[in-house]
Amino acid sequence: MLENLINAWRTPDLRRKLLFTAMILALYRLGSFIPSPGVNSDALSSALSAQGGIFGLLAVFSGGGLSRLGLFALGIMPYITASIILQVMTPVFPSLQALQKEGELGQRRITQYTRYLTVFLAALQALGYTYAFHSGTLGGTAAGDLINFTLGNVILIVMTLTAGATLLMWMGEQVTQRGIGNGMSLLIFASILTSAPAGINAWWNGSSFEKLSLPLVVLAVVIAVVFVQEGIRKIPIQYAKRMVGRRMTSGGSTYLPLRINMAGVIPVIFAAAVMAFPPTVGQLLPWEWAHSFAQFFTPGGWPFLIGEAVMIFMFTFFYVAVIFNSIEQADNLKKYGGFIPGVRPGRPTAQYLERVLVRLTVAGGLFPVIVAVAPSLFIKYGGFSTATARALGGTSVLIVVGVALDTMRQIESQLAQRSYEGFLK
Predict the structure, then answer these.
(1) Are residues 2 and 28 in the same domain?
(2) Which among 29, 65, 171, 348 could disulfide-bond with 72, CB atoms 3.0 to 4.6 Å apart, if both were Cys?
(3) Is 279 in the same domain as 148?
(4) How many domains, the chain?
């Protein structure tokens, strides 16, 4: 990995991409420290530190920006929520299905809808945070202690947070297009890493059991994630001889690589966003039953962990079905004279690929469920501190390691493209 980074730094265009990505992440961290006008940042940070619960989880995914209601306090969650809504609605509405089949032009239109929905959700979330922090929803704070609640100030705060979420969405897209790695995943990666120092400090000051057991748990999670993320199932492919123009192409054998965890960390991020929605809404509503509902789904509790596990497993199947079309793969093989030994071309090949893919997806879906839930249970019942659970829980480690592996895989592919010498020197 270190060698690949050094080689990427020596390549001029890759070095520019790395510097561009680093600059965007630095600007993201800078924007998290810029507070909104009319907000008592110190009092809000203290109240959120004492509160924990869903606000503590949201503070982790916002890179600490929520603790001071900074420019990027909403993080990238509005965009992720909008993406989930559009992906779920696409199979339901024929117009969205038609756009999806139009190729690049249709995808641009869907992306445009996602951006509009992101702005709308960000405005609603910003208004909800403003009301919640003013009304004394956080324990131990009185109404009006955190935010100067005037009409002009509320409008200014909502516009600031909405603009910050929109700007963050644009920054993530720029990283994806002009940098290295997936921009949205890297922003979440940077957000989680900002809570690592507090988690390490809490671990160091913890009990002897915590000091000895936590490194082993984190190391086991990292090894398991790397092992499964890099695991593939090789489907043998045989190509027959065929005439192309006046030339006879020679047949050959290769394989179709199907990853065990083809969806990567996307289902984990989606599940975290979905499970954060009910307790967040419950905390923002002024009624007592809503607060009880939010307390029922507090992060780390059994209902939250069970819901997260179910969501991860469901989103794994959903995402794999979106990115891999077995019928299209079978048609492409048939078109170019390829076939799987022992399987007839066409529909039988599609059924075979679908059967293999379902088995791989079951294993690939159960793995992130176990990795996300088991360490969280270990930390919860092992007497670990809240800061340690936030920074070094199963979900956080799984996202960090998964995003790092995906980014390094993209760097390797970029290096492979540029190291090809060709036939002429």
Answers:
(1) yes
(2) 65
(3) no
(4) 2
- Given phi > 0 = left and psi -120 to 50 = alpha, else beta, which region is 287? beta
Q: Does pTM top 0.90 for this prediction?
A: no
> Are 290 and 237 in a shared domain?
yes
Same domain, 339 and 359: yes
Closest CA to 11 of 416, 404, 423: 416
Per-residue pLDDT of the chain (425 residues; tens, 9 = 90+): 677 778 778 888 888 888 999 999 999 988 888 888 877 777 777 777 656 567 767 777 777 778 778 888 888 888 888 888 888 788 778 888 888 777 778 888 888 999 999 999 999 888 888 877 776 555 545 445 667 777 888 888 889 999 999 999 999 999 988 888 888 888 888 888 887 887 788 778 877 877 888 788 788 888 888 888 888 888 888 877 665 556 656 667 788 888 888 887 888 888 888 888 788 777 777 777 777 887 788 777 788 888 888 988 988 888 888 788 888 888 888 887 788 888 888 888 888 889 998 998 898 888 888 887 877 777 777 777 666 766 667 777 788 888 888 888 888 888 877 765 544 44
User: Which single residue is written with the structure tokens 């996300």?
Assistant: 372
Angstrom CA distances, 218 to 117, 143, 229, stand at: 37, 41, 16
Look up the CATH number of the domain holding residue 405.
1.10.3370.10
Residues 225 and 133 in one domain: no
Q: Do 136 and 222 lie in a common domain?
A: no
